[in-house]
Specification:
alpha+beta, OB fold (Dihydrolipoamide Acetyltransferase, E2P), five-stranded mixed β-sheet, 28% helix, 31% strand
Length: 201
C-alpha cells in the first residue's frame, strides 16, 4: 500500500476474518476494533465511487451550429424533425424563428445560433428542428445539421473552453475531448427568456 495502490481484496479478507473471529467469541482489543472500523469505512467510501465513475455516461444527439459541434442529452429529446415550413411570430425576439406544426402539435422554434450570438448561415434543406421537452416545457431548437447519436463518458467532460464565453457558457454542461459542446438541456428548458407564450388579445 506504500505506493498508493490499495489491495481491496486483502482489506475485504481481513474484515471477514475479523468478523468471523468476533462471532466465534474472540474479543478484539480497542486498537483492533478501530483498525477494523477504519478498513470498513475505506471499503464503503471508495469501492462504490469507483464503480459509479466507471459506468457513468450520457447519450447525446450531436448537431452543427455555425460549423461548431454541439450535443444535447437524448433523454430530453422527443424527436428530430426536418424543417419544411414555419410561421413567423411578430413582436418576438430575433432568436425566435417561428412556429411549426408537427402532426397537429404546434411548437415554437428557437434559432439558438442567434440566441448564442453565433454567425447566421440562413435556412437550407439541411436544417433540422430538435424537439426538446421537460416536465412543463417543449420547444424546437434549430440545427444546421444533425450528425448522429453517441455515448459520452461523464468523466471525459471538461468544464469549458477559452472560446466559450458569455451566454453560451451559462448553458454549458461540459466539453468533450474532441471539442463537442454539451449543452445543459435542463437549464435551456427552464429559462423563461427562451419560452414563447402565445397570448390572445
Amino acid at each position: 500500500m506504500g505506493n498508493g495502490n490499495i489491495d481491496w481484496s486483502e482489506i475485504h479478507h481481513r474484515i471477514e476474518a475479523a468478523n468471523t473471529a468476533i462471532e466465534g467469541g474472540w474479543e478484539p482489543t480497542p486498537e483492533e476494533k478501530k483498525r477494523v472500523l477504519r478498513m470498513r469505512a475505506k471499503a464503503l467510501a471508495q469501492v462504490p465511487k469507483r464503480e459509479d465513475e466507471a459506468g457513468a455516461s450520457i447519450e447525446v444527439v450531436e448537431f452543427l451550429l455555425a460549423h461548431e459541434r454541439y450535443g444535447i442529452e437524448s433523454s430530453y429529446i422527443r424527436e428530430v424533425y426536418s424543417l419544411k415550413e414555419f410561421a413567423p411570430i411578430p413582436c418576438t425576439p430575433l432568436f425566435v424563428l417561428g412556429l411549426i406544426n408537427v402532426r397537429g402539435q404546434i411548437h415554437s422554434v428557437i434559432d439558438i445560433k442567434k440566441f448564442f450570438e453565433l454567425p447566421d448561415k440562413g435556412i437550407s434543406d439541411l436544417n433540422k428542428v430538435i424537439i426538446v421537452h421537460g416536465d412543463h416545457t417543449e420547444f424546437g431548437i434549430l440545427a444546421d445539421a444533425v450528425l448522429g447519436v453517441q455515448s459520452i463518458a461523464l468523466g471525459d467532460l471538461q468544464p469549458s473552453l477559452p472560446t466559450l464565453t458569455g451566454i453560451r457558457e451559462e448553458y454549458l454542461k461540459g466539453v468533450t475531448k474532441d471539442r463537442m459542446v454539451i449543452l445543459d438541456a435542463k437549464k435551456l428548458l427552464a429559462d423563461k427568456n427562451i419560452i414563447v407564450h402565445e397570448e390572445v388579445g
